Amino acid sequence: MNKWLFEFEDKTWLPATIREGMTDYLRFILNSGNFYEPVSPLLVQLLQETNSLKVIDLCSGGGGTIVQVQKNIQHKYALAVPFMLTDIFPNIPAYEFIEHKTDGQVSYCSTPVNAVKVAAALKGVRTIFSSFHHFDTPTGTQVIQDAVSAREGIGIFDGGNKSIFFIVAMVLFHPIAFFLFTPFFRPFKWSRLLFTYVIPVIPLLTVWDGIVSVTRLYQPHQLLQMASDVNNENYCWQAGKVKNKYGMHITYLLGYPDEKKSVAAAASANSTA
Fold first, then answer.
1. Nearest to 1 by CA among 145, 180, 138, 177
2. Neighbouring residues of 182: CB distance < 8 A, sequence distance ≥ 6
3. What CA–CA distance (Å, rounded) separates 211 from 192?
């Protein structure tokens, strides 16, 4: 991965005010547009295959699209699945706002959570929305390996079209969206207005990160290759793309334990012994 194509959001030295302004914007846009609506059946499938009752969302940023994803599943499938937001840089004000807004259906972990080494206490299907491209291939493989080692299901969903036309669309869209919608982002912050309208650091860094994100997007075969590189005995993997109503593709990877294979392997081991 080209070292020059870094994302500001990943940098530890980026002030929290700026990072939170960027992730708050992304949460507003993703939820307002319901960009991840097509992944609902995939996530439900993952929950059913794992018999899981909870989703642990990794790399949540400012909450991303989780509020709308949770609503989609509840309305379309009558499943009140609780979600927990986690991040290595947790946006606590945003998480508190989301928890209150969803009556606790979306909770959060207030301490930093590294997707490469998730605490054993955080049990449930793991999801990563709009963030997996932040990891290089070795680190992404470690993220998958950690889920497999914990015998947890994992769903990776990353939206975007890897094309110059998509990049141009983002460059044109983001500044207009910032100008029109920033006063409506919640929770309200005066600092957000300052660093959007007076000193436009938040829009500029968001546009840069968006461009870099597109260049880093993984394809389904690359995700499957990472999954094949982990110690994933008795795991099922599924990868592909779905398209939302805006024509944007969402690349996904689903992984979950294959209990039938596990039982068969155990029976074979016992018979050999």
1. 138
2. 25, 192, 193, 196, 197
3. 22
* Distance from C-alpha of 158 to C-alpha of 161, rounded to nearest angstrom: 10
- Give CA–CA dist 222/137, Å, rounded: 9
Instruction: Please state the pTM of the whole predicted model.
Output: 0.90
Contact 227, 154 (CB under 8 A): no
Q: Where are the alpha helices (DSSP H) in 127-188?
A: 137-149, 164-181
Summarised one tens digit per residue, pLDDT across range 141-164 is: 999 999 999 999 999 999 999 889
Token pair of 245, please?
């109503």
Give yes or no for residue 217 having a pLDDT over 90: yes
d(CA 40, CA 38): 6
How many angstroms separate the CA atoms of 178 and 193, rounded?
Answer: 10
Tokens of 145: 């390996």
Rounded Cα gap, residues 136 and 205, in angstroms: 20
CA dist 45 and 63 (Å) reads 22
Bridge partners, 56 (sequence order)? 84, 126
Phi then psi for residue 120, to 5 deg, are -60, -25
- Cα-to-chain-centroid distance, residue 252: 11
Please answer whether residues 19 and 209 qualify as being in contact, where contact means their C-beta atoms are separated by less than 8 angstroms: no
Q: Are 159 and 250 in contact (CB under 8 A)?
A: yes
Q: Tell me how far apart the alpha carbons of residues 273 and 269 are, in angstroms, rounded to a whole number.
A: 6
Query: 154-159 and 249-257 as β-strands: parallel, antiparallel, unpaired?
Result: antiparallel
Cβ–Cβ under 8 Å, residues 43 and 65 = no
**Inter-residue contact 235 to 257 (CB < 8 Å):** yes
